[in-house]
What we know:
This is ROK family protein. By secondary structure, this protein is α/β, with parallel strands linked by helices.
Amino acid sequence: xxxxxxxxxxxxxxxxxxxxxxxxxxxxxxxxxxxxxxxxxxxxxxxxxxxxxxxxxxxxxxxxxxxxxxxxxxxxxxxxxxxxxxxxxxxxxxxxxxxxxxxxxxxxxxxxxxxxxxxxxxxxxxxxxxxxxxxxxxxxxxxxxxxxxxxxxxxxxxxxxxxxxxxxxxxxxxxxxxxxxxxxxxxxxxxxxxxxxxxxxxxxxxxxxxxxxxxxxxxxxxxxxxxx
Length: 228
């Protein structure tokens, strides 16, 4: 261990469809590189090694844009290359690795106790629920929402571009209301890159921030009360 409190120094890695970003729990500035449709797991690992050049860290926390259960990727990403399922990240980096869904990692970093519903408005729709420090990723995006289409069809970035800001905002409010009625959270955090497009927020919701993903990555290793 490399810090004064005998806690590991964590390198948090936020893997997105356009960029991969890293930040150390020891401090410093965020570093990022372009990702995109040609980035598979091996290319990502190489990019992270270059981004982390000069940084001392003990463990890694990865936020992956797809379903993850028990530290295992379940499906290939939509906006990156294939080659992620079964990839041995610990062997590649030579350090312990925890990997979770990227929306869950941002949700953990946004959590303020109680029952929280997190919705991530980005290229697609990310979702997670945390209840009394128990964190649960949710694949709400592909559930039916209306007219035979899914929540992601109406809340994703393609819908924003197709329907325009006003109609997209109405669907964000409506979907948040429906999910709040079903899941009964104490509060809702709306994050993801497109939350900045919302001029106002639904009732009982607050604005998240993509940088909370790093806080969530650190918490995966440092917060002993967290259950994932």
